[in-house]
Amino acid sequence: MDMKKIFDWTKNYLKSLNWIVLIGIAAFCTALAVVNNIRVDKDKSVDWIGSQDVLAKPAEIL
Is 37 within 8 Å of 48 (Cβ atoms)? Predict the structure, then answer.
């Protein structure tokens, strides 16, 4: 197979996908992950926003 046939086959395959359904599945999985993170105990929960510790400032900044 030459590159043009591979490119055309890939382009036609991507066009054949139902993108609305794929985006819906991804959004549903994200929503389930958020609900599951809220549902579990605090020690098993994941910090998604603001989880990075703030480093202490040195006394003197050069």
Answer: yes
All structural domains of the chain with their residue ranges = 3-42
46, 37 contact by CB (below 8 A)? yes
**Residue of 37, 41, 40, 31 lying closest to 49 (CA atoms):** 37
Measure Cα distances from 44 to 28, 32, 49, 50, 55 in Å.
22, 16, 15, 17, 24
| pTM of structure | 0.56
What does the pLDDT profile of the chain (62 residues) look like in tens digits? 689 999 999 999 999 999 999 999 999 999 998 888 888 887 777 776 655 555 566 666 55
CA distance 23 to 49: 23
Helix (H, G, I), strand (E, B) or coil at 2: coil
